[in-house]
Write a structure and sequence with these properties.
The complex is a heterodimer of chains A (453) and B (395). Chain A has 453 residues and is an alpha/beta fold. Chain A has two domains: 134 residues, no CATH class; 318 residues, 3-Layer(aba) Sandwich (Rossmann fold), CATH 3.40.50.1820. In chain A, strand 2 and strand 3 form a beta hairpin. In chain A, helix 9 crosses helix 10. Chain B has 395 residues and is mainly beta. In chain B, a hairpin with a 2-residue loop joins strand 4 and strand 5. The radius of gyration of chain B is 20 Å and the shape is globular. Classes of the chains: A alpha/beta (453), B mainly beta (395). The interface between A and B is large, with 35 and 40 residues.
Chain lengths: 453, 395
C-alpha cells in the first residue's frame, strides 16, 4: 500500500461520515444536487475527452463491452464505495499490518485515492476501465448503482450492487454465461463479499470478507474454457429497495444485469443463481414464491427460518399454494433447470426449522432419501465421525460443525456453496441455450402432497 | 463451586500458564527412573480443555479436595488426551504443529517439570518416501519403568517406546486381526490380569462399519497376540473399564452415531474371556452409548448421545445414571451440544465435561455432582472462556 493510500484509509476511519449506516452512492448524472450539478458542467468537457480517448485507445474492445456506458455513469470500477461495513473493516485490516506495508490482494478493492461518499464516477474511474483492455486480461470488480422506478410515483431510487466481471467475460462479452446473485443477511453487505478477512477468527464484527473475486478467479483457473459466471454482491434487505427486495431479486436486478452485461441473450437462456445468507433468504423465498421460475440454483446459507423470517406455515402461501410451488420446483429439478442447497451450522438455532423445510422438499422429491449422512473434514481425529465435529452431508443439505447463526458459519460454508453455484450454473448453460428452458407455468408433477406442517 | 472459588481457579490458571517446558534428552533419561510406574494417588483430576474452535487448549490439574484448578505447562490441541502414568502424565497429540506424538511429563524432586516428547514413527517409517504417515495415537500404557506402549490407531499397530532415549524401538502389527476390515484400528489399552487387552475398532473409517469390533489379548512380555475376543457389535470406543468387583471388563460399542440401537456396553468375563449379556443397550437409554463408568456396585454413569430431533445434528448429549438391577435410567445432566469428555467418578463425586452453548461455548466447564446426583456447591468449575473439557482423568 502506498503511503498516500494508507493516509486515505486512516482518514476514512476518522471521517465524520464513517458512522453512517446508509451508504452514499454516486448520484445519477441527471439528478444531482445543485452543487454536484455544477461539477457535472465543469466535468462535461472531461467526459467528452474521456469518450474520445476510449474511442482512440481501444476502439474494438470498448465497442464489444456492452456495460461500459452503464459503468461510466453508474459504477466505480476497481473500487468499493465506503459502505458502513468497509469503514469498520479498513482500520481493522490496516491495523494488523506494519504501516506502509503493501496489501496487494485487497488494494484493488479499497477506496482509491480519496473517499467516495458523495462522488460519482470520476474521470479517473472512466480511465480505469480503459486500462482493463490491457493484456493479460484479469477479472474486475465494480460497485454500481441501479435506479429503480417506484411504481405510481414519478420517481426512482438508487439501489446498489457490486459486480465481478470475469476475465473471460471481457474477452468474450457475448458468450452466454450464468449470473450468480449473492444476497447478504443482516450483518453483511455488498462490500463484504469482495473483502479479504481482516481477522481469521470470524468473531469480530466488521472484520469479515468472503473473497469472491479470488475464489471465482481460482475456479476459473481450475475450469479452463468454462463460461465463468458474472457474480453480483448485494446488501441485505432494507428500504433501499423501493418495491421490496424480493422484487429486486425476482426481476428488477436480473433484468438490468442481463440488459447491461449480456444484452444479446433473453433471460430464459441465462442460468441465474442466488446464494443468500440468513434474512436475505427470507427475501429470496418471497421471490421464489412469486416466481418459481426466477432462479436456476438456490443456495441458502444459515437461512433465517423463523416466524419473523421464513415462516414455513405462511411464507409460501397456503398449504395448497406451497405444495404447488414445491411441485413446480421439483418438476424443474427433474428437467434439469433447478437445483437447491442448504448450509447450516449444527449450533444454529434455526437448524430444526431449516431441516424441516429441507424435509418438506425432500418429501416432494427434490432431494433423495439416504440412510445416513456422509462425513468429512472432522475436527477431532480421535473421535468417531459424526455431525458435531465433522461436516455432515445429505443430498442438498450441508451441516457444519461447531458453528452457530453467525458469520463464523460462513468460513466453512461459503467456499463450497460458491463453488456449487459456479459448477451447477455453468453446467446449465448449454442446456438452456440449446432449447431446454423452464416451462411457462406451474406443472402438476404428480408428486404426493406430504408437506407438513 | 462458590463464585470466589471459581475466580481463584481462573486466577491460578492464568498465573500458572507459563511457557511450555521444552523436551530434552536429560528429561527423557530422568523419566525412566521408575516414576512412571510408581503407584501414587495424587487426589487430582487432569483436565484437557479445548477452545471453541478446537484450535488449542489447556491442561489443568484440579484438586479433588477443594476443586482448585492449576494449569500445567503443556500445550494442548483439539485432539489432546492425557493418561495418568505413575507420578507423571502421558499426553497424546500435544504440541501444535507437530502434534502426532507422545509427551511424557512429570516433576522432579524440586518440582521442576520434566518433559520428554517422542515421535511415534519407527526409524524406517520416518525414513520412508512420500507423506509422513499419520499415527493418530489413541492410548498409551506403561509396560515397565523404562518402556511404554502406544496404540497407533491410524497405522493399525502398537509401538514400544524406550523412555530413556525417547525413541520407538519396536512396532507390533495388528492388521492380521482386522477381521476383514482394512485396518485393525487399535483404540484402548488396559492391563487385565497377566495380559494386555487392546480394543480393535475395525471401522474402516466409516460411520457405519460392517465389521464388529474385537479385543486383542496380548502377552505383555512378548507382545504376541494370544487371543482375540470378538465383540457382538461394531465401533468399540473409549477406555476398557473394570467392573467394581474386578471380574468383568466393560467396552462401549457405539455402532453408528446415526443409529440408536446398534450399540451397547459390552461385558467381558475376565476369567473366561467370554462376552456376556450387555450391561446396557442403546435401546434402553434412547441414544448412542460412547462412555461408561461405575458409580457403585449397582449403578453406572453413561454418556448418551443422540440426534437433536429433526436436525440431523448429533447434539443431544446426556449424562445418564443407569441402574443395572431395575434397568431404569435417570438423566443427571442434559447438555446443549455434543462434547468429547467422558464422565469420571473420583473422590466420591461425579465429574462431567459440559461443552457449553453456542459458537462461543458459554457455560463450558466441569459439572460436579455427588454420587446421589446433587450439585456440589454451585456444581460448576469454569476452566476459562469457552474452554470445553475434552478429556478428564483421575490420578
Amino acid at each position: 500500500m502506498r503511503p498516500h493510500t494508507a493516509l486515505t484509509l486512516a482518514a476514512l476511519g476518522l471521517a465524520p461520515g464513517c458512522r453512517e449506516t446508509v451508504t452514499r452512492h454516486p448520484a445519477p448524472l441527471t439528478e444531482r444536487p445543485p452543487r454536484a450539478r455544477e461539477a457535472v458542467h465543469r466535468d462535461a468537457g472531461r467526459d467528452a475527452a474521456a469518450d474520445a480517448s476510449v474511442s482512440a485507445a481501444a476502439v474494438a474492445d470498448a465497442r464489444t463491452w456492452p456495460f461500459v456506458e452503464h459503468a461510466r455513469r453508474w459504477c466505480l470500477p476497481d473500487r468499493l464505495a465506503a459502505t458502513s461495513y468497509l469503514v469498520r473493516w479498513v482500520p481493522q485490516f490496516h491495523g494488523r499490518l506494519p504501516l506502509g506495508d503493501a496489501v496487494p490482494d485487497i488494494a484493488r478493492f479499497l477506496p482509491g485515492q480519496r473517499a467516495v461518499y458523495d462522488d460519482p464516477p470520476t474521470l479517473d474511474d472512466q480511465q480505469r476501465i480503459l486500462s482493463w483492455q490491457s493484456q493479460p486480461r484479469v477479472s474486475h470488480v465494480m460497485d454500481c448503482v441501479l435506479r429503480v422506478p417506484i411504481p405510481g410515483a414519478d420517481r426512482d431510487r438508487s439501489t446498489t450492487y457490486t459486480v465481478y466481471l470475469p476475465a473471460d467475460y471481457l474477452d468474450h462479452p457475448t458468450r452466454p454465461r450464468p449470473i450468480v446473485l449473492l444476497v447478504s443477511g443482516g450483518n453483511g453487505n455488498r462490500t463484504r463479499w469482495f473483502l479479504t478477512p481482516a481477522r481469521s477468527d470470524g468473531e469480530t464484527p466488521g472484520t469479515g470478507g468472503l473473497e469472491v473475486r479470488r475464489r471465482v478467479d481460482a475456479w476459473a483457473a481450475a475450469n479452463p474454457g468454462a463460461a465463468v459466471p458474472i457474480v453480483v454482491g448485494l446488501d441485505g434487505t432494507s428500504d433501499q429497495f423501493p418495491n421490496g427486495m424480493w422484487a429486486f431479486l425476482e426481476h428488477e436486478l436480473p433484468d438490468h444485469l442481463i440488459a447491461t452485461y449480456l444484452p444479446e441473450h433473453p433471460r430464459a437462456r441465462i442460468p441465474l443463481g442466488v446464494e443468500c445468507i440468513s434474512s436475505g433468504c427470507a427475501e429470496l423465498s418471497l421471490a421464489l414464491r412469486v416466481n418459481p421460475y426466477a432462479f436456476h440454483a438456490v443456495g441458502l446459507l444459515s437461512p433465517y427460518v423463523h416466524p419473523s423470517g421464513i415462516d414455513l406455515a405462511t411464507t409460501f402461501g397456503t398449504r395448497p399454494q406451497r405444495a404447488a410451488l414445491f411441485r413446480t420446483l421439483v418438476a424443474r429439478h427433474r428437467e434439469g433447470s433447478f437445483e437447491m442447497r442448504f448450509s447450516v451450522g449444527n449450533l444454529d438455532d434455526h437448524l430444526p426449522r431449516a431441516r424441516q423445510w429441507y424435509d418438506m422438499l425432500k418429501s416432494f422429491g427434490l432431494f433423495p432419501s439416504v440412510e445416513s449422512a456422509t462425513y468429512s473434514d472432522c475436527h477431532l481425529r480421535r473421535a468417531r465421525p459424526h455431525s458435531s465435529h465433522c461436516t455432515a452431508t445429505w443430498p442438498g443439505f450441508w451441516l457444519y460443525p461447531n458453528v452457530a447463526h453467525h458469520y463464523r458459519a460462513l468460513i466453512p460454508a461459503f467456499p463450497p456453496a460458491l463453488d456449487w453455484q459456479l459448477d451447477t450454473l455453468t453446467a446449465m448453460v448449454d442446456r438452456l441455450q440449446n432449447g431446454a428452458r423452464s416451462p411457462s407455468g406451474p406443472v402438476d408433477g404428480g408428486v404426493p402432497d406430504a408437506a407438513s406442517p | 463451586m462458590r463464585p470466589a472459588l471459581t475466580l481463584t481457579a481462573i486466577t491460578l490458571s492464568v498465573a500458572a500458564c507459563g511457557a511450555p517446558t521444552p523436551s530434552s534428552p536429560a528429561s527423557c533419561r530422568a523419566l525412566a527412573d521408575g516414576r512412571l510406574v510408581r503407584a501414587v494417588d495424587r487426589g487430582v483430576l487432569t483436565v484437557v480443555s479445548v477452545t471453541p474452535r478446537y484450535d488449542g487448549g489447556r491442561i489443568h490439574e484440579l484438586s479433588l479436595a477443594d476443586l482448585r484448578a492449576t494449569a500445567l505447562p503443556l500445550e494442548a490441541t483439539g485432539d489432546t488426551v492425557v493418561r495418568p502414568m505413575g507420578e507423571g502424565l502421558a499426553v497424546l497429540h500435544r504440541a501444535i504443529g507437530d502434534q502426532d506424538n507422545l509427551t511424557l511429563f512429570a516433576r522432579d524432586a524440586s518440582g521442576a517439570p520434566l518433559t520428554c516428547q517422542v515421535p511415534l514413527l519407527t526409524e524406517e517409517e520416518a525414513r520412508g518416501a512420500g507423506p509422513r504417515p499419520y499415527v493418530n495415537a489413541h492410548d498409551v500404557i506403561a509396560l515397565d519403568a523404562g518402556t511404554v506402549l502406544v496404540a497407533r490407531h491410524g497405522l493399525s499397530s502398537l509401538v514400544v517406546v524406550d523412555v530413556a532415549t525417547g525413541r520407538v524401538t519396536r512396532a507390533v502389527d495388528l492388521t492380521p486381526f482386522a477381521g476383514g476390515a482394512r485396518g485393525a484400528f487399535p483404540d484402548a489399552i488396559a492391563r487385565v490380569g497377566p495380559e494386555l487387552w487392546v480394543t480393535l475398532a475395525r471401522h474402516d473409517n466409516l460411520d457405519r462399519s460392517n465389521v464388529h469390533g474385537a479385543v486383542a489379548r496380548l502377552d505383555p512380555r512378548t507382545l504376541a497376540v494370544v487371543g482375540l475376543i470378538e465383540l457382538p457389535r461394531s465401533n468399540p470406543y473409549g477406555p476398557i473399564h473394570g467392573s467394581p468387583d474386578g471380574t468383568q471388563r466393560w467396552v462401549t460399542t457405539v455402532g453408528s452415531y446415526n443409529t440408536v440401537g446398534d450399540g451397547a456396553v459390552e461385558v467381558i468375563d475376565v476369567a473366561t474371556g467370554r462376552v456376556l449379556d450387555p450391561l446396557v443397550t442403546e435401546s434402553e437409554v434412547g441414544g448412542n452409548l460412547d462412555a461408561v463408568t461405575a458409580l457403585d456396585a449397582r449403578r453406572v454413569v453413561l454418556r448418551v448421545t443422540a440426534e437433536r430431533v429433526g436436525t440431523g445434528a448429533i447434539d443431544d448429549l446426556r449424562l445418564v445414571v443407569f441402574d443395572r438391577v431395575s434397568r431404569t435410567s435417570t438423566t443427571l445432566l442434559r447438555m446443549a451440544s455434543w462434547g468429547a469428555a467422558a464422565p469420571v467418578v473420583a473422590g466420591g463425586r461425579v465429574f462431567a465435561g459440559d461443552p457449553g452453548r453456542g459458537a462461543f461455548r458459554e457455560g463450558a466447564g466441569l459439572r460436579v455432582f455427588t454420587l446421589e446426583g446433587a450439585p456440589v456447591g454451585d456444581g460448576f468449575v469454569r476452566l476459562g472462556d469457552g474452554l470445553m473439557p475434552y478429556d478428564v482423568q483421575a490420578r
